[in-house]
Amino acid sequence: MSDRTYQPPLDFDAAEAALEDGDALVVDVDGFEGPLDLLLSLARQQKVDLLAISITKLADQFLAFVQEARRKRFSLAADYLVMAAWLAFLKSRLMLPKKALVAEVEGDPEDMARELALRLVRLDAVRRGVEALKARPQLRREVFPRGDPQSLVITSTTRFDEDLYALAQAYAQQRKRAEARAYIPTGRVEAYPLEAARERLRGLLPDLEAWSPLALIAPRPAAGVDGPSRASCLASTLSAGLEMVKEGALEAQQAEILGEVYLRARTPVAASL
Amino acid sequence: MTEAETDAAVETIVPANPVETERQVEALLFAAAEPLSAADLAQRLPHGADVGRALAALRGRYAGRGVELVCVAERWRFSTAPDLGYLMTAEREESRKLSKAAMETLAIIAYHQPTTRAEIEQIRGVGLSKGTLDLLLQIGWVKLRGRRRSPGRPVTYGVTDAFLEHFGLASLADLPGASEMKALGLLDASFTGDFQLPDPNRQDADEDPLSEVGLDAPEFHQDFLE
Amino acid sequence: MTEAETDAAVETIVPANPVETERQVEALLFAAAEPLSAADLAQRLPHGADVGRALAALRGRYAGRGVELVCVAERWRFSTAPDLGYLMTAEREESRKLSKAAMETLAIIAYHQPTTRAEIEQIRGVGLSKGTLDLLLQIGWVKLRGRRRSPGRPVTYGVTDAFLEHFGLASLADLPGASEMKALGLLDASFTGDFQLPDPNRQDADEDPLSEVGLDAPEFHQDFLE
């Protein structure tokens, strides 16, 4: 086969179209869609079963193509060069006597060659699939459906029997859910400050000679006035009381768990002041 | 010269085969979007075809079949045999229940319209699957109203007249209100959330009506490819 | 009680008459805008009707006529005989001329489905420009099927019933040459073994054997909703 046979058709239209499509690296100057496409078209020139093609011959053809393209200063996409390098490598391996190969490391060149042939067979099969599809009678090109279908077809009307109650129920449930979800504490809870509780207890010390229940000692918030809650007053007073127990100013006792807490000033009152 | 004309040229020499003409007429009538006259047919057939004969033969061939060749106002068409009309009109009516999600979505649209998908999701507290709104639109109880004049210009939804009709409501103002729901035991007496019935005449100032907006469907595949 | 049920009650006494069933099927298929499956037909026919037999009889009756009964995508439709296509100039649609890349991509998806973008690129040996798959999806010949259970969970593609209908294929098994390709092992994704040709376009990590994924193909809604 002479060099002429596989000289690429110089398809500048394809190249320009490709540039416009932004596909310049995919479709190359010669109109082949990548190295595999080119390899397939070269392999077909061997006019044998694709599985029986001579890979060395194919490699030569591809390398000649690449050389020719470079000689003519066509820019080649990187994958052509990768493929060229790989084919050169494969060819050199195929020509070496078998025992010279370090097969374990680099793989069997025969396998690689068969692999390439299989890839070409598969691409070829796709091409033939395309031709077979194109040859089929296509809808509204060769065959035509009924031009004026009658009113019908499978008019399955679905009746939804929902009633207003279900609607109201659906809405109410969501509103309740949303309300529960949307709970946001309304502003800060005002607490009875510890300082204030301590101050107040110190003031009360002279009156605490007898055991007095915490509930009586703690201040009672005035009704109708915003301020710390009763619970907060109790808690802060207890805390302040315990601090003062630690300081030695007060004594505390509780008869049972959860029972009332009693506080009393320690006797040498004056000493602590 | 078109293919048909080429054929016609051939046919002037070889007289039209009646069997072939019958096939051609059959195919033309079948594929035509409207009834064809004998002249229409002759025009589309190779020259010399005996259309009248083909029509007569076809009429005979289809007599008593499920499909008949009929002539109306001097135009010919195939139509299904009159005695089988019941097959074409029978409707399958299935009674179905809306899913909970669909019912709740419908309720929100009814009470809050015009409302957006995001608002529906906010009230329900869960995301809305695409199918739910589609179903309501398909049933015809919900319609697109327009677009909210807010960032993203979300589509707004409302209920349709078919919705009102189905639920026996004269207007949206007849939807059960908070007090009715409390009476029905659907809401606790302590429920205090704001509960406003939609004003049927309300046209939101921040809503663009549908007609003004191009509600172009985005290309569906965009959603899936990236 | 629905009409169908009423009919069924009658038909259990009088068995369906095959000639009548054939007429009914003929009428339904003629009237239908879309191909109908045997199940679609059975649903509309009186109980006990032998739809399969009627379809076979009709297919024989219409063989060689101007209109033929064909099975596409496992459903049935009447369509004009392929050899008469030249007559239908008025009905012919401006055919979409698909690019070579698009046609090959379509073929690969049809023969290899479910397949991924990376596999398509690997078979063709070149990268797939973005518009190609989009175009096929838009035409409606290709659909997303699911995701491959492999790293990156790539989306898998398959062909649609519309594809089968367009090319007049009863099922995927009827793809021309599919059995030969299968015999050669060309449809087996793992046929290339461990070794890979140098391929700068290939996105790797996609060599798991093809396996059907249980994922629903995402639904394509005309998504004007957001």
List keywords for this structure.
heterotrimer; A: 273 residues; mainly alpha; three-stranded antiparallel beta sheet; elongated; disordered C terminus; B: 226 residues; alpha+beta; Arc Repressor Mutant, subunit A; 2 domains; four-stranded antiparallel beta sheet; 11 helices; disordered N terminus
Describe the structure.
- The complex is a heterotrimer, with 1 copy of chain A (273 residues) and 2 copies of chain B (226 residues).
- Chain A is mainly alpha-helical and 273 residues long.
- Helices cover 52% and strands 6% of the residues of chain A.
- Chain A is built from 11 helices and 4 strands; from the N terminus they run ααααααβααβααββα.
- In chain A, strands 2-4-3 form a 3-stranded antiparallel sheet.
- In chain A, α3 runs antiparallel to α4 and α8 packs across α10.
- The longest helix of chain A is centred in the middle third of the chain and has 27 residues.
- The radius of gyration of chain A is 47 Å and the shape is elongated.
- By secondary structure, chain B is an alpha+beta fold.
- Chain B has 2 domains: 74 residues, Orthogonal Bundle (Arc Repressor Mutant, subunit A); 126 residues, Arc Repressor Mutant, subunit A.
- Helices cover 42% and strands 16% of the residues of chain B.
- In chain B, β6 and β7 form a beta hairpin.
- In chain B, α6 crosses α8.
- The longest helix of chain B has 14 residues.
- The radius of gyration of chain B is 30 Å and the shape is elongated.
- In chain B, 31% of the residues are buried.
- The N terminus and C terminus of chain B are likely disordered.
- The chains are: A mainly alpha (273), B alpha+beta (226).
- At the B-C interface, α1, α2, α8 and α11 of B face α2 and α7 of C.
